[in-house]
Amino acid sequence: MGDESLEHVLTAVGPRLRALRTGRGLTLAQLGKETGISLSTLSRLESGQREPTLKLLLPLAKAHGVPLDELVGAPATGDPRIHPRPFTRHGQTWIPLTRFLGGLHAYKQILPVRPPDQRGRPEQGSHEGYEWLYVLSGKLLLALGDHDLIMGAGEAAEFDTRTPHGVANAGDHSVEWLALYGAQGERMHVRARPASS
Hints:
Layout lengths: L2 H21 L4 H8 L3 H9 L6 H11 L3 H4 L15 E3 L2 E5 L8 E7 L18 E8 L2 E5 L2 E5 L4 E5 L4 E5 L5 E7 L1 H9 L6
Antiparallel strand pairs: 1-2, 2-3, 3-9, 4-7, 4-9, 5-6, 5-8
């Protein structure tokens, strides 16, 4: 890679980092807490006043849930396939189906069968935005406000997430569904830590 190409790649990193952060609705302080990188370093990276290093880019790529090459703008190969990296939060497997480029974020989610002593109503939360669910297999309990809905394969739901909501496995097999979240919902469901008891 020539000096000009390298310079172009490096100057494009800052705006890309800013777009990823603002697309997730995070402040510099929140991202700093998530990555352990100081607020001033993050600010200088985004403004192009600090050269990006692998030591800084690795935790940022992990925090934003994107491959490292997306941060440095590796040339497109023409292959539209994404390579999702599943992760687990609160006993649930999440498989990202989109990259974090703003707008809606799609996930395939998998919940194992609940032990008998954990089969109560799921904990509910609320936040700004809308959520869309589509059940692929199994039975999903959607606790929406005061209503409990059992959804089976092929059923879909759309709801205002200001209404308290929570989900749980309602069957004897794993339940799999697709979910679409806006940035606020994605942050609340995927990145927020569970409240301490």
